[in-house]
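Subject: design request, 263 residues
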């Protein structure tokens, strides 16, 4: 698969789907949903110029630290963290880029995710300010951002509430200025994923998510360390005798997200 990708016999999208599958990610498990990169940073221009490197995110940095100010705060948090019990290793991020709640957050406008979200929120929609309502305010992505325009529209007319400060009603997702419709957004976003810039830099993101910068000294240097429970093999659940502790850890792993298997 790597050779096919290098020879440009398969698209970036196909390559990412294959890597996700090999790393144990699947559409059948919300806690192990496929992970795709956040690739753009221009959400304000009237036109999207894919020949301009400035419209793309720096794929060599985790999404949480592409902004310098955040990078400083994340580094300080890691350096100052000490677990008095010595169980929890230092980490840069307590929340994960891929978890069940995040997938439901993006897909809230389409079933069965609407119902799953309501179940997660004890029988009602979460408050409007926490809903997915705007593309520019987002984190790492799911594959649907590159092929499924329907999830950006509230075709079922769900009452998703209104924002507290602006009183704006949450309905269809707010698109960047350069997208004239959900279909146009998906078309341009997919084009961006297959662009020359992303083709030349995608391996940098793959290193962070699936490769050598996922753990160990390289992850520390790249500001890419997550809470210890999210890593494969970090906890041996079968060895736990305390049922309560086991249940708590299982809940944590299911809800906080999991790092893909290292490839």
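Subject: RE: design request

Done. Sequence follows.
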């Amino acid at each position: 698969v790597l050779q096919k990708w290098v020879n440009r016999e398969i698209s970036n999208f196909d390559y990412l789907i294959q890597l996700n599958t090999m790393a144990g990610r699947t559409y059948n498990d919300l806690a192990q949903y496929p992970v795709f990169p956040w690739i753009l940073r221009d959400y304000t221009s009237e036109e999207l110029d894919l020949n301009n490197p400035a419209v793309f995110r720096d794929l060599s940095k985790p999404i949480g630290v592409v902004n310098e100010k955040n990078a400083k705060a994340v580094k300080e948090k890691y350096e100052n963290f000490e677990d008095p019990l010595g169980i929890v290793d230092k980490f840069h991020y307590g929340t994960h880029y891929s978890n069940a709640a995040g997938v439901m957050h993006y897909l809230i406008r389409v079933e069965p995710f609407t119902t799953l979200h309501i179940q997660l929120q004890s029988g009602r929609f979460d408050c409007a300010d926490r809903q997915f309502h705007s593309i520019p305010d987002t984190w790492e992505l799911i594959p649907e951002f590159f092929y499924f325009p329907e999830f950006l529209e509230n075709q079922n007319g769900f009452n998703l509430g209104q924002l507290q400060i602006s009183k704006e009603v949450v309905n269809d997702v707010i698109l960047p200025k350069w997208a004239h419709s959900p279909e146009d957004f998906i078309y341009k976003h997919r084009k961006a994923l297959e662009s020359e810039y992303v083709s030349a830099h995608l391996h940098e993101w793959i290193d962070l998510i699936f490769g050598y910068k996922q753990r160990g000294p390289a992850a520390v240097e790249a500001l890419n360390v997550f809470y210890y429970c999210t890593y494969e093999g970090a906890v041996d659940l079968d060895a736990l005798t305390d049922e309560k502790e086991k249940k708590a850890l299982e809940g944590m792993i299911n809800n906080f997200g999991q790092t893909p298997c290292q490839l």
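The chain has one domain: 1-256.
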